[in-house]
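Hi there,

I know you've been waiting on this one. I reran it after we fixed the sequence typo, so this is the corrected version. Both the input and the resulting structure follow.
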Amino acid sequence: MSTRHARRRRLLALTTSCGLGWLSIAMPAQAAVDVALVSGAFRRSIQVSDISHLAKTEEARGLLGDLLKVSDQEPAQVAELLNKNLDVPLVLTSRLMNTRIGEALIRRIAQIIYPLSTSETSVSVPAIRAAVIEGLQRPEGLTAVSFLEAYPNPVMAVNLPALFAVIEKAESIAGLVQFFSDSPLDGLKEPKP
């Protein structure tokens, strides 16, 4: 009786795993379809397919094309940035994201990008982790496009005021580093009479 029971369990396990396997092929994981640029009550969405098209062809279309024209950006330069590969080891990245420093960094990023439905860190932090890990596993590696295509929510919001604040801080830090690397004491010395 026990061998019969064991066979049933194995058969059940086999059919379940086959069913789940086919289900995962038939229903691919949800990925970002739109990137919503959010500033207070203002919201405009750019399709991820338009971003991917720009990365592949250096041709901007739709709202993305309009934004590049208004901001006087060259599509070829933006395409180069979108295709920039972040070459980091998968295991090391996974471990780093689960340290206190990694957690703090992801929480900061989660203030800028998050699922449109909620900006709660309990949702946005795992979404960022998942997109990074999935993006690293893709043949092209982790790029902006692979990150978006791996982001596990249909609409990824980008908080524009938070993004601009980070950019401003980065520029001021870069200016500070430049100031100190250009021998600041040389400019402070008084000429000898």
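Quick highlight: The first helix runs from residue 2 to 26.

Best,
R. S.
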